[in-house]
Amino acid sequence: MKQRVAIVQRDIAWNDVDRNLEHLETMLQGVEADVVVLSEMFQTGFATNPIGAIDDGRTLRWMLQVAKKLDAAIVGSCAVKVGEEYRNRMYLITPDADVMWYDKHH
Length: 106
Description:
By secondary structure, this protein is an alpha/beta fold. The protein contains two helices and five strands; from the N terminus they run βαβαβββ.
């Protein structure tokens, strides 16, 4: 069984979550894929000081909506705060709203 993969590469508006998610939503209109792969820290850019751009859950909610709308799995990472630590968390979301994640470690 062949799988269709869409890899999304674009300019990222630095630390502007709303603008980035809106731009991605426009880019993804009409995409027909089984898996959509977004860039690392796709909603902010690779911020080494993520204060002010930490995901408050809206990116995960957005990914859940997009996966369902496109009927495709979606994968990408964003900055999250866990306790007092910041993490680069990669999410894999299925169209059925299964959420899997991995925190990048150095």
